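User: Teach me something about this protein's shape.
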Amino acid sequence: MRWGTWGVSPVRDAGAAGRCAYRRYCELFNAHRFWDAHEVLEEQWQEDRDPFKQGLILFAAAFVHVQRNNPAGCRKVLRKAIDRLTPFAPRHEGWAVDRILAHARLCLDLLDRRPPDRPLAGYIPWIELAPPEPVPPPPDPAAEGPLAAVLLDFDGTVADTMPLVVPALQQVFREFDGVDLSWAEVVARFGPPEEALLRQHLRNRSAWPRAVARYLELYRERHGRDVVRSPELEQLLRDLRSRGVRLGVVTGKGRASARISFAALGMEGLFDAVITGDDVRRPKPDPEGVRLALARLGVAPGEAIFVGDTDADVAAGRAAGLVTVGAGWFAATGQPLTLQPDHFFTRVAEFREYLEARLAAPRPGAGG
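Assistant: First, the predicted structure itself:
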């Protein structure tokens, strides 16, 4: 079951004892007392056989194996933890489950790449867990007022380009710097558009123009093969446009790669405003790009929503005064969402229902 704000399933209240145990689990886990954290939930799990608690127990147990330098045990237990916790993503009982799952998968990836003689301690990264807190019920869409514009992030929201972007950047760094970066190491460099990212992080500075050209070449060549699309979302955007809703994109990707994606996806001319990372001085989570899009569309913040899949998207939309929507319809291949948006949808059909409620809201001054 998922917390009401983040999904459509009803929430199961953990109760006072359960919440107390969860808080103690976090305290012990963050103090690297992983066996003690494991034991905090073990007794309750023996009584209720709650698979979510079992997933947290297994997650803590995996780091016991890290401390014991047991890679086989760590790998085995992490896989079991992922299996137990996945049905509860993205959130459950106040926990950011997607964040835990993303870290567990990162650890598995690192285990697969680990040199045989490398100790686990200092190689497998820790994660700081936030104590779960009850969240308020989601606001009533109709009470949020009429909707004039929908602004969206692009990567991971309009299309899942991560299976293209990360491998392409990995190859560029390999060709021009001779280094093999992990998926997580590439994602950690995100923020500026691709050209600025390469200028900032490429050690072979003289090769920067050729590296940018090579990245764009790979991006264009592999787009049709590697990018994951959502025909359902694409149809929804076209339906919104036909009903007079203004559409905008606020993305951190560069103008060149954005043009490649729009052409490859048949989205040229679909958006009334496109703000790329090349159009702003301060990328998300700064609200500069969102505010610039609103200005170009001539829409007030209260008449628009911002849809995205990362904390930076939620923070930028919130700072600009928009209702924020978390996009969970693509697999989490980037940075996990830990900030709580006003709404979160794992299916495009749920997002469409929300939009219909907003579009049906009476406009100020309308009779009735």
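Now, about its shape. Residues 15-113 form a domain with the Hyaluronidase domain-like fold (CATH 1.10.3450.10). Confidence is low (pLDDT under 50) at residues 1-16. If you'd like, I can walk through any region in more detail.
User: That's plenty for now, thanks!
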